[in-house]
Amino acid sequence: MAEQAELQVFVSYALPQQEFVRPLRVAPGTTVGQAIERSGVLTAFPDINLVTQPVGIYAKKKTLDTVLREGDRVEIYRPLVADPKDSRRKRAAKKQAAA
Question: What is the pTM of this model?
Answer without folding.
Answer: 0.77
